């Protein structure tokens, strides 16, 4: 196989992107320039280069739109619940069930993780925090323990698997050339191993420091109880969780996967949103619906707008997607580079697993966790194919590393929502997370090597 100038340009841009992520620099401009250069050199025309840039971003946007839409609808539903007070009714009783620091740690973590699976971690933080933190404090759990539990369960376990919204496995899998269902199946054991070790070790550290007197539960002033709720709010507080429980049961019973499962979740969420608006606001429902939908799309677009130009470049590395941008016969540049590397350096499960984890952690240093997933998927395909390993497992391992790193457990700029709600210093939280998370990722790497 002969490598062309386009291949070497692609490799140079990939290395610049990894360096930029390591240095916490923006990489959008590098990816845009790389896309233009590839189009110019491959097609031999600067006009074609401009067309390539637009087509690549359009292709990436189409691939991501269902994720953007589902997140926008879930955020809009949350905003509607907040407006009518249904979120308060749903969350408040749970805080009263906390018995002691142990129950509070695992309880607030489990609730945050469950909500994060449907709403994503940041909006879930804003829902869980104000209503459950006082109860956890009364149960004797220090604020840093509350922050760690919410962080590890939400930004770690829930987001790294992303089994409900399926944004992460779709992004990674599409670049790796594997299905969403294969990505999810490969992710399950890795999520369990990393999650159990990270949360368990974090809890052990917390109890150790509490016994030594290094941590104490802060006294929380009595919060003002809200007492006035409409009938619609009371019904919605029960209807929303029951509806999504029914969705989960239905998707398992009917074996719905990927886009089918996402479509069902989004459809049910939108119906609940409309019903709540009509029931609470009646003839003014259209105004409120417009308002919450705008908020939902603003949140979703804000997350994915910087991902699209990065994905546009890295999709050129995949042999399945590159022809959609550059035309029939276009190579998958990173895929070809991986095959060429395998002829020089023998590749096996151990080195490719270590490479994918390190690149994943570096890719997450920008604090989003998602911007590097396309690169991770493309790299998994490029290295995994010549190495003869299970590409889905390799891609899932890289996804785990990227999201646990940048999704918000290891870098201070990724835990700002948790820090803001709890008042904990971001750096102290990430320092506390470092050993549990890295130990969990190390264990997941070992498991992945055996599974590959």
Automatic annotation (TrEMBL):
Keywords: Membrane, Transmembrane, Transmembrane helix. The chain crosses the membrane at residues 6-23, 30-51, 63-81, 102-120, 183-204, 235-255, 261-278, 299-317, 344-365, 372-397, 434-451. It comes from the Bacteria. This is Transporter. It comes from Tumebacillus amylolyticus.
């Amino acid at each position: 196989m002969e490598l062309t100038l386009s291949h070497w340009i692609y490799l140079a841009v990939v290395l610049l992107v990894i360096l930029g992520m390591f240095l916490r620099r923006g990489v959008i401009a590098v990816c845009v320039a790389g896309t233009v250069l590839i189009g110019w050199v491959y097609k031999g025309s600067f006009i074609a280069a401009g067309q390539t840039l637009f087509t690549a971003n359009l292709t990436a946007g189409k691939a991501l739109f269902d994720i953007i839409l589902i997140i926008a609808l879930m955020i809009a539903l949350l905003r509607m619940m907040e407006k009518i007070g249904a979120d308060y009714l749903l969350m408040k009783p749970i805080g009263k069930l906390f018995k002691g620091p142990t129950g509070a740690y695992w309880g607030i973590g489990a609730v945050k993780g469950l909500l994060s699976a449907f709403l994503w971690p940041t909006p879930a933080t804003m829902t869980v925090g104000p209503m459950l933190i006082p109860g956890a404090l009364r149960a004797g759990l220090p604020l840093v323990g509350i922050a760690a539990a919410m962080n590890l369960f939400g930004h770690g376990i829930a987001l790294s698997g992303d089994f409900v919204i399926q944004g992460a496995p779709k992004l990674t899998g599409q670049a790796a050339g594997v299905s969403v269902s294969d990505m999810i199946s490969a992710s399950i054991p890795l999520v369990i191993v990393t999650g159990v070790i990270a949360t368990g070790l974090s809890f052990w550290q917390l109890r150790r420091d509490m016994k030594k007197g290094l941590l104490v539960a802060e006294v929380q002033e009595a919060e003002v109880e809200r007492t006035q709720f409409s009938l619609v709010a009371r019904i919605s507080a029960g209807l929303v969780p029951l509806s999504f429980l029914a969705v989960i049961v239905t998707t398992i019973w009917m074996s719905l996967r990927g886009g089918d499962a996402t479509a069902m979740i989004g459809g049910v969420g939108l119906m609940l949103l409309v019903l709540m608006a009509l029931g609470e606001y009646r003839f003014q429902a259209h105004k409120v619906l417009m308002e919450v939908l705008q908020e939902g799309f603003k949140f979703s677009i804000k997350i994915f707008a910087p991902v699209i130009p990065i994905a546009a470049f890295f999709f050129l590395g995949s042999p399945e997607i590159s022809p959609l941008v550059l035309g029939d016969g276009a190579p998958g540049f990173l895929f070809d580079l991986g095959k060429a590397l395998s002829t020089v350096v023998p590749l096996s499960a151990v080195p490719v697993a270590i490479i994918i984890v390190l690149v994943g952690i570096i890719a997450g240093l920008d604090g989003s966790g998602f911007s590097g997933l396309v690169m991770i998927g493309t790299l998994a395909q490029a290295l995994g194919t010549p190495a003869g390993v299970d590409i889905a497992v390799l891609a899932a391992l890289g996804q785990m590393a990227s999201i646990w790193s940048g999704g918000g457990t290891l870098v201070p700029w990724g835990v700002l929502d948790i820090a803001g709600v709890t008042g904990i210093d971001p750096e102290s939280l990430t320092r506390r997370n470092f050993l549990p998370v890295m130990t969990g990722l190390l264990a997941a790497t070992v498991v992945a090597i055996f599974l590959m």
